[in-house]
Specification:
This protein is mainly alpha-helical. It has a single domain, classed as Vanadium-containing Chloroperoxidase, domain 1, CATH 1.20.144. The protein has nine helices and no strands. It is globular. It comes from Streptomyces seoulensis. This is Phosphatase PAP2 family protein. Keywords: Membrane, Transmembrane, Transmembrane helix. InterPro entries: PAP2/HPO, PAP2/HPO_sf.
Length: 221
């Protein structure tokens, strides 16, 4: 996916939804079925990163600022809302503004529905460095960042931005999406597969939303 975004002249893949739906469904099944190799991998990663988080208090504090303020779902949704307001201000783009807001709302509902359905417990530590609410899978931070950054990056691409500004937008989006996921694992509030699920489900929502938007644009008079 990164290669597709970085190539400014390469057309977007026609059917990315299937490529994202299959691993998303597989991971969801493995988590729901408590597949032991996946659980063992998650526990090994979590134990290692938790030791680091407890030992490196300065890094942990910085990570908390990033995850609670910079890449927090509320911050991401406010960013999305701000862009939607700007698009709405340009009267010809009101449809895209509504599409943007609806997609973010649908993503939030999908996220909560999957969380409730799987009901996966979060990691529990005798010496936690942070806390979080709701079920673990998928990571809301990772999914929200993926949806918002993915949608905005697509809009930037469609607006004709190329060259250094395009590459800068791609780097910023990738750093944000990967960074927020890693902060959740570092703080011990998510298993790694929760974050992976957030990335996959978020990318799937973006792919479906873009497909819907493109079809709507083709049939619109």
């Amino acid at each position: 996916m990164l290669r597709v975004f970085m190539d400014e002249d390469r057309p977007m893949p026609r059917r990315p939804t299937l490529l994202l739906a299959l691993p998303s469904a597989l991971l969801l099944a493995l988590v729901a079925l408590h597949w032991s190799p996946l659980l063992a991998m998650d526990e090994g990663i979590a134990r290692t990163t938790h030791r680091w988080a407890v030992r490196e208090r300065g890094v942990t504090q910085t990570v908390r600022v990033l995850t609670d303020w910079v890449w927090d779902p509320v911050t991401m949704r406010l960013l999305c809302a701000g862009v939607a307001v700007w698009l709405g201000w340009r009267r010809a783009a009101w449809g895209t503004a509504v599409w943007l807001l609806v997609t973010c709302a649908v993503a939030a509902m999908v996220q909560q529905a999957v969380k409730a359905g799987v009901a996966r417990p979060r990691p529990v530590w005798p010496d936690p460095v942070d806390s979080a609410r709701f079920a673990a899978f998928p990571s809301g931070h990772a999914m929200t960042a993926t949806v918002v950054c993915g949608l905005l990056l697509w809009l930037v691409r469609e607006s004709g931005v190329r060259g250094p500004r395009w590459y800068g937008a791609v780097v910023l989006a990738v750093v944000s999406v990967l960074g927020v996921g890693l902060t959740r694992v570092w703080l011990g509030v998510h298993w790694f597969s929760d974050v992976l699920g957030g990335w996959l489900f978020g990318a799937l929502v973006v792919a479906v939303a873009v497909r819907v938007h493109e079809r709507r644009s083709r049939v619109r008079p």
